[in-house]
Amino acid sequence: MKLKHVALIMDGNGRWAKLRGLPRIEGHRNGVKRVNEIIDTAIEQRLKAVTFYTFSMENWQRPKAEINALMRLLRNFIKSEMHRLHKNNIIFRAVGDIKRLPSGVQSVLREFEDLTRHNTGLIVSSALSYGSRAEIVNALKKIVEMGVRAEDINEELLESCLYTAGIPDPDLIIRTSGEMRLSNFLLWQSAYSEFYFTDIHWPDFGRDEFIAAIKEYNGRERRFGALPAKD
To answer: Is there a domain that residue 43 lies in?
Structure first.
């Protein structure tokens, strides 16, 4: 099946910095630089969507100074890159509990979404203040508030109430830095996703590594519970 959507768990910024005797924030700063490279490669590969796990619900437990630094990096990146990405016809989506983010970050996220709303190219999603369990609970609350009868609830309705409504499910989920778990990321959406794990830390994960993951995916056979195709 043709690859349409790749989701990325960008892990290892802190470990990358520690190996070099640098502050953790330098790992994050170098990690941000990779995002544009991955977006440009996704456009080149004619993908439909790419999603970055940027800041999880669990990340709110980190030291306040690190959180503040991450929020500044995020805001500065969007302000500096949104017009270039808009010219590349991307559609930006921020998915997650966005109201928990600082007001300045919320403002630039809305500006970016509004700027690219009518574009027709690659959907670039940033999962921010995101937790998949909370997303599913939130969707169920919406359904209850809508007054939907139990017998009328189905997968399509629930999907329409998720943060990711309108975005195709990921065909491939990539996680860097050697960890092999989803960490509360796209639990509903990843039901039939393929997974690719690499020991490379995120700041070192560039175009060549992304292409290698795509090539491995293209060599796999996705059956979705069916029997293999006959020769």
So the answer is: yes
* Domain of residue 107, residue span: 5-131+170-218
Query: Is the Cβ–Cβ distance between 10 and 176 less than 8 Å?
Result: yes
Active-site positions read 11, 59
Note whether residue 142 is domain-resident.
no
Model confidence at 126, pLDDT cuts 50, 70, 90, reads very high
* Helical segments of 88-194, H only: 103-116, 132-145, 155-160
Looking at residue 20, the DSSP 8-state letter turns out to be T
Residue 213 lies in a domain: yes
Contact 183/9 with Cβ under 8 angstroms?
A: yes
User: What's the CATH code of the domain at 91?
Assistant: 3.40.1180.10
- 57-114 pLDDT per residue, tens: 999 999 999 999 999 999 999 999 999 999 999 999 999 999 999 999 999 999 999 9
User: What's the structural domain count of the chain?
Assistant: 1
Query: Which pLDDT value is given to residue 221?
Result: 79
Q: How do residues 184-213 score in pLDDT, each as one tens digit? A: 999 999 999 999 999 999 999 999 999 999
Please give the Cα distance from 76 to 28 (Å, whole number).
13
Task: Identify the DSSP state of 98.
Answer: G
Q: Which pair of tokens denotes residue 120?
A: 């027709």
